[in-house]
Amino acid sequence: MSAVVKTVTPFISQEILLKALDCLQIKYQVTNHGIVLTEHTDYRGNWTMVLENGKYLIKHDSDSYRRWNSFNTQNTIGKYNSINEFLQAVEKEYLRIDKEIQEELERKRQEALLEAERKRIEEELKRKEEERKAFVEKQKQEVLKKAQEQGYSYQIKQVGNSVKIILTKNTY
């Protein structure tokens, strides 16, 4: 018979789970069958974290589980004397790491939103500047057309950021 030990927090991310085990300094080996905890071995084998239905469950033979928790205090996982202590520590680390990752993703999302807003503002400023230049050019053309109709000649000079139009009319 085998036992399945369930946790309150579903361990759905292998990456976070492995980081949690690393933080707790638990030795493990990733295999095709799951994550084998190599620090605890008895005559029936290792404790294994197996992916089932999208989350990792810890599995082992139930006879061995009772013997391990009740009689053999030398068989521990790292510094943890029971599977419950071990799972509580893993769960705490898992949640801490997951929270850090969520906070980092939120920070990056906020940065992306700020960058998108900055680009939108830059585009708006460019558009406004192009509208202003188009308006100035239109006014310039209207002034020049009106001046020509009234018999003026003109000269255009650039003075700094401004355009200076000099109108002259010869009268005899």
Summarize the structure.
By secondary structure, this protein is an alpha+beta fold. 50% of the residues lie in helices and 27% in strands. The strands form two sheets. It has a five-stranded antiparallel sheet.
Characterization of this structure:
- By secondary structure, this protein is α+β, with helices and mostly antiparallel strands.
- The chain contains three helices and seven strands, in the order E-H-E-E-E-E-H-H-E-E.
- The strands form two sheets. The protein has a five-stranded antiparallel β-sheet with strand order 1-5-4-3-2. Strands 6-7 form a two-stranded antiparallel ribbon.
- Helix 1 (14-23) crosses helix 3.
- The longest helix is centred in the last third of the chain and has 67 residues, at 83-149.
CA-CA gap between termini: 120 Å
Helix content bin? 40-55%
Enumerate the spans where pLDDT stays under 50 for 5 or more consecutive residues. 62-74
Tell me the major beta sheet. Answer: 5 strands, antiparallel
What's the helix count?
3
Report the β-strand fraction as a percent range. 25-35%
Strand order of the largest sheet: 1-5-4-3-2
> What order do the helices and strands follow?
EHEEEEHHEE
